[in-house]
Each structure stands twice: as C-alpha cells, then as structure tokens.
UniProtKB/TrEMBL annotation:
InterPro entries: Glc/Gal-6P_isomerase (IPR006148), Glucosamine6P_isomerase (IPR004547), NagB/RpiA_transferase-like (IPR037171). Its EC number is 3.5.99.6. The keyword Nucleotide-binding does not apply. Gene3D superfamilies: 3.40.50.1360. NCBIfam families: nagB, PRK00443.1-4. Keywords: Carbohydrate metabolism, Hydrolase. CDD domains: GlcN6P_deaminase (cd01399). Residues 5-239 form the Glucosamine/galactosamine-6-phosphate isomerase domain. Coiled coil: none annotated. This is Glucosamine-6-phosphate deaminase. The lineage of its organism: Bacteria, Bacillati, Actinomycetota, Actinomycetes, Micrococcales. It comes from the Bacteria.
Length: 251
C-alpha cells in the first residue's frame, strides 16, 4: 500500500467488515506507532452509518453497539511501570484504543507488569484470554529485532504470556517514549508466540524503511526463533500490510 494512512484505512475496513458480520468479538491490540493510523481510521468510521450502512466515502461503518461489547487484549506491558504512568502501555491503550473507540474499559485487558506476583499475573492473563473464547483478530507491529509483542530473538515458538528481557535495540527504539534510554525498563510481560499464534487471524502492520530488514526476514527468511516474527509463516490466516519502504527488501 502507498503509505501508513492507506494501511490504516485497509485495516479499519477489514475490522469494520468483520464487526458488521458479527465475526469479531475479541480483538488483540498492539501499542507502538504502527497501529495508530488503523485506530484513528476505525474511530472515524464510528456511527458514520449512511443509508447504505457505509461511512463517508463508502467505507464500511462501525456501530457503537459492536464496539461496546468488544473485548480487547493488549500484547504486552513494561515491568515495574505503574498503570497510571503515561509511558505504561495501560495508559497508551486507554488513550489510543479504549477512549478513541469508545470501548467498555472493563472489557479491555493489559498484562499487569506492576503486579507483585508476575508469574501469577501471567497465568491469569492467559486464563482471561481463554475465558473470552480466544482472540479472533490480532493486530501486530514488528520490531527491528524481528520481535512480535515483546518476544525478542530466541523466544520459544510455543511460549505463553511471561516475563521477558527487552533487547538493547528495542530499548533504544522505545527510548523516544521516555525521557532517556536509561528510563526504559529492562523487562516486560508479553503474550508468548504460542499465545499470539492461537489468534484466529493475524494482521501485521509495518511501514518505513527501518522495518524493511525485519519484514524480509519475517516473510521470506527461514522459520527461526532468531526472527520471532517468522512464525507468522506458519499461521493459517496472516495478513501483512506494508508500505513500499517496508516492502523494499522483499525478493
Ligand atoms: C507493542 C508491541 C511491539 C511493537 C513493535 C513495533 O505492543 O508489541 O511488538 O509492535 O515494537 O513498534 P512500533 O510500531 O512503534 O514501530
């Protein structure tokens, strides 16, 4: 697709159609920059219902009712950052997803990275996803390291939600959300690759040249835990949305 905006529109159309068809009860959401145009495009479709059930310009509309009953699960959270801190993924999801889309906050879940017993919190998160009937559609970004969620290179393909150490490259990349790189936590809680692979459909979004290498390794490289995102090749229903720059290293 030509650019991030077009990717966001494509993703929003797809999500809107699944919602309208009653085929989306549980949405997996990612933080970071990549999905933001999709969340914005989706927000613009809310209640844009015209006579033909479409928003302005013919794009599929999204009803408020469908969003109010939608359950959402975030992929990850930093360890040790309280949920009310602006850098926390709790705060990001609240602002960019829950509020923007008018979701019911009690149906939006983010791993508890500030829990005292992190192992118990991880088990509980897996249980919450299972109790919701599993994720129907998972939105994903990809890190320069090839990570999905915060599953850094060498993550087990069958891993479940757990504590991980962030790669130095990821801490550098995410320093832009903190006052300095030293402030970026060393650890995170992330859904495992096994957890992500259980989703009914994957929608991976990447744009910009800095993603080209990781995208090429994920889409055309060998299946290897050294590029965790290469596991998408094994998923039965994975869509990869790219701009020209992110696609530039594909064969
Ligand atoms: C975020 C997440 C990460 C990001 C990835 C890309 O919840 O799980 O895998 O999707 O680091 O980040 P951006 O989109 O900021 O380039």
């Amino acid at each position: 697709l030509p650019d991030a905006q077009a990717i966001g529109e494509w993703a929003a159309d797809h999500i809107a159609r699944r919602l309208a068809a009653g085929r989306l009860q549980v949405l997996g959401v990612a933080t970071g920059s990549s999905p933001l145009p999709a969340y914005d495009a989706l927000a613009r479709r809310i209640d844009g219902t015209g006579a033909e059930g479409s928003a302005e310009g013919g794009a599929p509309a999204v009803s408020r009712e469908a969003l109010e009953t939608l359950t959402a699960f975030a992929l990850d959270e930093y360890v040790g950052i309280e949920p009310d801190r602006p850098e926390s993924y709790h705060a990001v999801i609240r602002e960019e997803v829950t509020e923007k889309l008018g979701l019911d906050p009690s149906r939006v879940h983010v791993p508890e990275g500030a829990a005292e017993d992190l192992e118990a919190a991880c088990r509980h998160y897996e249980q919450l996803i299972a109790d919701a009937g599993g994720v129907d559609l998972q939105i994903l970004g990809i890190g320069a390291t090839g990570h999905l969620g915060f599953n850094e290179p060498s993550s087990s393909f069958s891993s479940r939600t757990r504590v991980k150490t962030l790669a130095p490259q990821t801490r550098r990349d995410n320093a832009r959300f903190f006052s300095s790189e030293d402030e970026v936590p060393l650890h995170c809680v992330t859904q495992g690759l096994g957890t992500i692979m259980d989703a009914g459909e994957l929608l991976l979004i990447a744009y910009g040249e800095h993603k080209a290498e990781a995208v090429a390794r994920a889409v055309e490289g060998p299946l290897t835990s050294m590029c965790p995102a290469s596991i998408i090749q094994w998923h039965h229903d994975a869509v990869v949305l790219l701009d020209e720059a992110a696609a530039s290293k594909l064969e």
